[in-house]
Amino acid sequence: MKNVTLAIDENLLDQSRDYARKHHTTLNALVRNLLEREVGARRRDHWVDEFLALTAKAGGNSRGWKWNREELYDRKVLR
Fold this sequence. Notes:
elongated, 5 helices, mainly alpha
């Protein structure tokens, strides 16, 4: 694992340390988790972009028809 040096406002740093302490973690782990959630999530969400591209390429057309509430909950429609 690599080390990184960050410049952080002193007040924000104090608040961050308090937050980490209250959540029984370290500031290092907190920053690592935040980065993983924000940056790593984009890597996991790549399938959404692929899905949207495939649906656009498929060229389906509902001709304006949409499900209504009754049809969504009517099990007969699903059979």
